[in-house]
Amino acid sequence: MTVAQETAPQSPMTQRPGAKGHTDSGAAFVPDQSRAERLTSYDVADFPVPGGREEDWRFTPVDRLGGLFQVEPTDESRLTFEVFAPQGVEIGEAKVGDPVFGSVLRPADRASAAAWAGAEKATLVTIPNEVELSESVRITMTGDRGSGQRPPRVNGHLIVDVGRFAKATVVLTHKGSAECATNVELRVGDGADLTFVTVQEWDDDAIHLAQNDALVGRDAKLKHVTVTLGGEIVRVCTNVRYSGPGGYANAIGVYFADAGQHQEHRLFVDHETPSCVSNVEYKGALQGDSAHTVWIGDVLIRATAEGTSTYELNRNLILTDGARADSVPNLEIETGEIIGAGHASATGRFDDEQLFYLESRGIPQDEARRLVVRGFFADIVNRIGVPEVQEHLMTAIDAELSLSIGPASV
Amino acid sequence: MATLEIRDLHVTVDTENGVKEILRGVDLTVKAGETHAIMGPNGSGKSTLAYSIAGHPKYTVTQGTVTLDGQDVLAMKVDQRARAGIFLAMQYPIEVPGVTVSNFLRTAKTAIDGEAPKLRLWVKQMKAAMAELRMDPDFADRNVNEGFSGGEKKRHEILQMELLHPKMAILDETDSGLDVDALKVVSEGVNRAAAGGDVGVLLITHYTRILRYIKPDFVHVFIEGRIVEEGGSELADRLEDEGYDRFVKVEA
Hints:
The complex is a heterodimer of chains A (410) and B (252). Chain A folds into 2 domains: 25-349, no CATH class; 351-410, no CATH class. Chain A starts with 78 loop residues before the first strand and ends in a 6-residue tail after the last helix. By secondary structure, chain A is mainly beta. The relative contact order of chain A is 0.10. Chain A contains 4 helices and 18 strands. In chain A, 13% of the residues lie in helices and 40% in strands. Chain B has 252 residues and is of the alpha/beta class. Chain B has one domain: Rossmann fold, CATH 3.40.50. Chain B has 8 helices and 12 strands. Chain B has helices spanning 46-54, 78-84, 101-113, 119-132, 150-164, 180-195, 233-242, 245-251; strands at 3-15, 18-31, 35-39, 59-68, 71-72, 86-89, 96-100, 143-144, 168-172, 200-205, 218-223, 226-231. In chain B, strand 1 (3-15) and strand 2 form a beta hairpin. The N and C termini of chain B lie far apart (40 Å). Chains A and B meet through helix 2 and helix 3 of A and helix 2, strand 7, helix 3 and strand 8 of B.
């Protein structure tokens, strides 16, 4: 198969959500009455090709996503899939018809539906009941552009099935160059404990649209970690549901956007089951001209979800002029019988008083800025709980900072 | 021996109502081994003097000079002033989320000395200094000034002064908001630092209380942006009895 061509119609939207301050361009649309009404379907045809005015695409540069909205053509041979499996884990394949296939995820947009249609089988990672892994499962997806004009169009489908009372950490890393659409299904069994990390460290020309759906079992724990550093356009939609009471979901994310990068993280926690907890915390830094980040945090507490506790937070640190961060938390509550619900969002620049304080102790300004940014990320990075990911991430943040601040002196 | 010389210093600040002159010709010389107290009512410009010497960007020097051993302090950036030997203990220390006290102190020490301190020796030094200030050892793992009580913030400022060994230490209302016990601990720290005779101390205060624990060699009364009277520690005693009314009336 040849390299994908752009087949989608051009978007009528010519402006990027650009250089100005925060505006609620959503005011021009009739929004869904409830987040619950958003369409999900396995059929690509149910989703019109986005034009950029839809609620869930209004921040995204859809005119550059043409190939990802079509099922064909693809070039799967350009995607390699490496798996490191510690003892106790089973690596296999699942295909349409297997009970586990599609048991968690229903595509919620056209890209996910296209990926679904394009990937005939999924990589299946099974952690059997009561097995506790001592080491992380590491999966690396690498796109190879080769001599192609454009990055190859590829799809991915990963299913992580954690049996009851099992405990595991799974790290999925995306590298190289591709136009990649992926679906990830995370099934956390009753009483199980899963840490799932998705790292987007693509080359500069990559485009990646991902949907991660998780189903958290009774008294189960999920920590979903998103780390987005590389790629031209990266959009990760994470949806969490619960299949029994007592479930706990912690979704944390760190992103760092440079000039020309678009990084979008959309979260939807659907509380339908009583006595579950969700905690969402994302932090991002931006630097360089037209660096753009989008964070959408939707939480729905349905009438049946009494005893829910939820909190969402997004913070953005804008390091240079010309970057833009959009941040939209949405909280929809259909019952008053909850423990707590809150959200916070803030986007700011360096705090001059913090810098003065550090500089007044002899610390040069570059070093002071570096300390502040590292500090900004530190609390969230430390909570990832996977040492190799944390170390790698702090190193990557330092490397990013050396672009705007200069190399570290220590 | 270090000497800080302030000559005819005029400083303005931008306010909503335009540019306002706060310092109106300050003359002051502080030598190593000396402790000077600057006393004055609220709004007299004492803190402005402190921040102007440290180089806070909010303040604009319009006239005059500040030199440390002949070097032009006003030409230096904030961090250069600190490395030249100026230290400011702030009245309201700033929180720096995610940066631990130990990381902060080590980074500052490295910057001031121009080389990283020997790790084992440094940890020992830090622990000893913290113990003298009655600070809990786990203090080192907390984020800078985050969630600190008023007393903890001030102890942390004095800890920095003791570890960074400045030539000139400016203490901006370090006594404010401290109970008597904390005041004693903090004063002991200042006295320890001053005991070697190689640091000059500029103690800015509204109250005479701290002067019971730190004996000033000179007392300067600061009113409306300049020094209006100077004397020995007996002047502080007089202020204790009379307050600032005498000076404020003269100005009016």
